Every structure is written in C-alpha cells, then in structure tokens.
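Students often ask why we bother encoding 3D structure as a string. The short answer is that it lets us treat folding as translation between two languages. Here is a chain of 195 residues written in the first language.
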Amino acid sequence: MPETRASLLIRVRDPADQTAWHEFVEIYRPVILRLARQKGMQAADADDVAQLVLVAVARAVEQRPHDHGRAKFRTWLHSVAHNAILNALIRGKPDRGSGDSALRELLNQQESQNDADSSLLRLEYRREVFRWAARQVRQEFQQETWDLFWQTAVEEHEIEDVAREYGKSRGAIYAARSRVIRRIQEKVQQYEQDS
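And here it is in the second language, the structure alphabet:
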C-alpha cells in the first residue's frame, strides 16, 4: 500500500502551495466520495461530506505536526471521514463543530476499529493513485497502444478477443500492456517519492 507522502503533507501546510493542495484533493476527494457512497449516501450528500472532510483536513494539517509516534495520516483521515459520514447519516443534516479542542484531540488520536472500512480506504486510495497516474501518462502513448492496454489490463477483456479485434498478435498486446504498465508504475513511484 502506498503511503501518503510526508512531503505532500508538509507542502499542503503552506497555503501558498496551491499545487500541493490540488494534488491532495485530486487523490483524496474521490476516495472520500466513494467511501461515502458505499455507506449508502446520495451523491450530493457524499459531496457535502467530502467538502466537510477536506475543510477539516485543511484546518487540521496546519496544526498537526508530523510525529512518527502518532497514527498514520491515512488512519487519521479515515477517522475524520468515517465520523463525518456517520454524523451525516445519523443526523441527516449538516454537521456543526462543537469547538471543543479536547474532543478534536481525542478524535485525532483514535484509530479505526473497523478493518473493513480501513481496507476500503486503502483500496480506494490505491485506485485513485492509479487513475491519477494513468491520466498523467495517457498522452505519452498512441491511441491504439492505450486501448490495447486499457481493454486487457483494466477492463479485463480476453487477450485473444482484443487481438482479433485489432488484428494484432498476442505478443504485440503483451508488449503494449507492458510498456503502459511500466510507465504507470514509474509515475506512481514518482508520486510516492516526489515532493
């Protein structure tokens, strides 16, 4: 599981670094939305919850120093998202903060007790990083190469069927897939390592 880059979390603390915030939102907003939708929320309500969570993150990330002894950022984000979703589902109305910093600190220190939700968050994060990387490298390939990759690796169409449709050999399809997958993997590694 890719970890949230510490460098991105540090950069997000700087309000002037709009690129970092955009990158953060591009990765995590869809993850939060899918988590909310999988909990049964309507699209508009899930959008509201995602906005609440991102606002909470924006406020808290400035105050939350990087501490190896603390829960991982992903665990903390999961707790914030999970609580916001539960509050929205239970209350059925917009959440209002209590303003109680002791309560906020207690929530920040809690780890999820629900492994299924935690696994879901990890899975959705990985999917979103893949989608992001795919968007980043898409223009590096010819349309046919991309289609061969997408249909066989992502949509899981049979190699033989795609080979017949495009008039290509199995080897040509494997080569196309391999080039695209390698480039996506490089982009994911770069995302995880770059600041």
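Translate back mentally: The two ends are 18 Å apart (CA to CA). Keep this in mind for the problem set.
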